[in-house]
Amino acid sequence: MTRTERLFKLMQALRIVPPPATAQALADRLDVTARTIYRDIDALRGLGAVIDGAAGFGYRLIEDAALPPLNFDEDELEALVLGLREVEEVGDSTLADAAQSALAKLRARLPQTQAHRLDHAVLSARRFTPLPQSGVDTARLRRATWEEKTIRFDYSDAEGRETSREVDPLSVVLMQSSLCLLAFCHLRGDFRAFRLDRMRGLDLTGASFRPRRAILLRECLAAMTCDTGQETA
Asked: pTM of the prediction?
């Protein structure tokens, strides 16, 4: 890890670790020594970050020079918290960490009164019945979707019938009580929704359908408004 990368990660840790964050807690998170944390705190202060605290007491990020000022009204804050908390509950580990990081960045740049509302928002999201576990690497699936790459996987439908599918992935959505992939299925020649927990063996075919994803997704969503039974049969 380069020094620049380490300083960036330390700033992010200061946003996330409940203050006052001790040097040892920060060191454990970054897998470095406490002595390195002391040096890097001084470096960040020299770069303009306002960090309260000292060795032996812990640190608190007061003013984050890396982020621009932010201002939201009360309803906007509630909406942000609700959305990000829901992502923490239903997203894969990469997205859940990203949601936590985004909340920490918001908290770092809000006025104190609004930061308090962020921490004690009326709206939140909790799932006591977890979603079915995805049978494929969701982060890899999202990446293939963004890059508009055709994928291949094995799929088991509600009756247990298994097929091999080659599809153009369009979007991952929460439908009822499971995450589903909206896609154009080459086997069926039509749009389909595939439950992620019934997918296995995700592979890239090497083919690309760029730049058609946005157009195909609009067509898929339009078709879904007329027919809610989009899961494969």
From this structure: 0.62
Cα distance between residue 197 and residue 92, in whole Å: 12
Residue with tokens 């909406």: 79
pLDDT tens string, the chain, 233 residues long: the values are 788 888 888 988 888 888 889 999 999 999 999 999 999 999 988 888 889 888 888 998 886 555 555 567 788 888 888 888 888 888 888 888 888 888 887 877 777 777 777 777 877 777 777 788 999 999 999 999 999 999 999 999 988 899 999 999 999 998 878 899 999 999 999 999 999 999 999 999 999 999 999 999 999 999 888 765 444 43
38: phi then psi, degrees, rounded to nearest 5: -60, -45
What tokens does 73 get?
């009204």
